[in-house]
Amino acid sequence: MYEHRSTPLLPLRKFVHRVVGHVALSALVLVGSLAIGVIGYHVFEGFSWIDSLLNASMILGGMGPVNELHTSAGKFFASFYALFSGVVFLVGAGIIVAPVFHRFIHKFHLEHLGGSGR
């Protein structure tokens, strides 16, 4: 997926395309995670779809739940979903940062090896 350290630096246009693809992949992970939360709150706690969306969005955004949880199943789901959301945040950030970090390291290798680094 990424160029080898002995190959030239990717042109800026292709690099921007790569970053856009990574942002889209991160957004897809976020939307899928949000869907898991919405369905979970709807099924386990019996919230309406809009309340489920609100609670899942708030948990995924790191703000915490809005509505009070009444069932044990809902509380278990909310606790696991909160932990899952933390991991999703890290994964999403990693997906977005990966091409930028790779370009930085690749340019460093080219300069270190005596390449043009452009």
Care to describe what's here?
By secondary structure, this protein is mainly α. Helix content is 74%, strand content 0%. The protein has helices at residues 12-45, 49-60, 72-112. The radius of gyration is 20 Å and the shape is elongated.
Task: Write the SSE topology.
Blueprint: H1 12-45, H2 49-60, H3 72-112
Helix pairs in contact: 1-2, 1-3
How many domains is the backbone divided into? 1
N→C terminal distance: 20 Å
Task: List the secondary-structure elements in sequence, H or E.
Answer: HHH
Helix content range: over 70%
Nearest-integer average pLDDT: 90
Shape descriptor reads: elongated
Number of helices: 3
Biggest sheet layout: none
Uncertain residue ranges: none
* Total beta strands: 0
What's this entry about, in short?
The protein has helices at 12-45, 49-60, 72-112. The chain is mainly alpha-helical. It has one domain (14-112): Helix Hairpins (Orthogonal Bundle), CATH 1.10.287.70.
Keywords:
single chain, mainly alpha, Helix Hairpins, elongated
